[in-house]
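Subject: Chaperone regulator structure
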Amino acid sequence: MSQASSSKQPARVDDGEIDRLLSRQANALQREVEVERILKAFKLNPYDIIDVDENATPEEIKKKYKQTSLFIHPDKCPHERAPEAFDLLKKAETELSDKDKREELDAVINQARKRVLEDLELPTTTPHNDYKLKGLNPTFKQRLRAKSKELLIEEELRRRKAIKMNLANEGLEARKKEDEVNARKRKAEDQQAWEAGRDERVGSWRNFAQSKEKKKKKQKIAILG
């Protein structure tokens, strides 16, 4: 038997296995790309984080959230910041599921929409699918997201300023109450000290009166003598 025929032949790689391997690698890459997208999304806009339109229905939002959360789940995604992205996604879904919070967010976005339409010299009632909004560069969606970001930042700054002022007012009120308590405490201590020194004052007055009386008697005796 020749050496060539006796040597071990390399195992033939199955084409299907190669396809599966490439598919897994591509899938892992897509997961990491999605994690990066979420991390770079504007944190004050849950629509950006979940990547849905502002007019999406609750069902559409929940469906997109479930798909994305499963796709980037830390157990499946090797990205080191997958847990952070997963938490951001969950927070965004929670905010959009809260009726009051979504209404507040939508109010700001509607204001942004009106301003964008005004900049385009279009009626503020122009529907989002109007032909006049097609072919814009930047697109209407990009303009709306940019203006929404601007207004949401302004709103967040106002919110933080209000919190800071409230804390400052609470601090002033707390100090005022503390000063009042300290003033009452000092008054009580002064009163207590006054009461405690009463006997001493009375004794001093008696001694003074007796001493004065003795002096008078001595003077009287001296005059008579």
